[in-house]
Amino acid sequence: MAVQSKHANRGWWAAYVAMLAARPVLTKAATSAFLNTLQETISQVMTNPRQDRGIVLEKALKMGTYGFTIGGPLGHFLYAILNGVFSGTSLGHQIGQLVGANIFVVPIQNAVYLAAMALISGGDVVAEVKRGFWPLMKLTWSIFPVVQLIAIKFLRPDLWLPFFQAVGFVFGVYVSYQVKNAQRRRRLSDGGKRRSQPRSS
């Protein structure tokens, strides 16, 4: 049974890699949609377990739509540009890709992600991006260079994608949870302040 399961997993992965080669944008968009939907569902339940399931589903589907229409395609084209600039396989090219990803790709992705979350939650997009951008960048820069170096040092190139997706998924759940918690605290604080203000006669 274990051998059959191992072969089945290889078959699924081979099929996924083949889809990436044949239809890279569509495959990455679908993957992003699935992961964003799951991330949003988990982070919402963690933030507010008593929230109405209909609201959870609605927001999760909106994040899935973001992943399919924006997140996945955006990541594909940004990394395509980066891979075009650093197209070799030498250590220098790999370091160039690492640095380029962190100063070019990641800031764009983080800003767009924060804007999408603000839109879905009904918040002020500009204010949310300004408030969350640098804390998110610092967190990203403290984690992902290490993750990328681990992949370069210890993993075969064909295993980089699932490794990055697994780490990115956990990171995405954490970031979404933290952002939602902060938004919830601000709403509660603003509501308390409004109730405590004296009414004008």
**Largest beta-sheet characterization:** none
Helix content: over 70%
Secondary structure class reads mainly alpha
Number of helices: 6
- Tell how many strands the DSSP assignment holds: 0
Low-pLDDT parts are none
H and E string? HHHHHH
**Global geometry:** globular
The overall pLDDT, averaged over residues, is 85
How are the SSEs placed, and which strands pair?
Blueprint: H1 2-22, H2 24-47, H3 53-85, H4 91-121, H5 125-154, H6 160-196
Please describe what this structure looks like.
With 201 residues, this protein is mainly alpha-helical. It has one domain (24-186). It contains 6 helices and no strands. It has helices at 2-22, 24-47, 53-85, 91-121, 125-154, 160-196. Helix 2 packs across helix 3 (53-85), helix 3 (53-85) packs antiparallel against helix 4 and helix 4 runs antiparallel to helix 5. The longest helix has 37 residues, at 160-196. It is globular. The termini are far apart. The model has no long low-confidence stretch (mean pLDDT 85).
Describe this structure in a few short sentences.
This protein has one domain. The protein contains six helices and no strands. The chain has helices at 2-22, 24-47, 53-85, 91-121, 125-154, 160-196.
What descriptors fit this protein?
201 residues; mainly alpha; 6 helices; 88% helix; membrane; transmembrane; Integral membrane protein
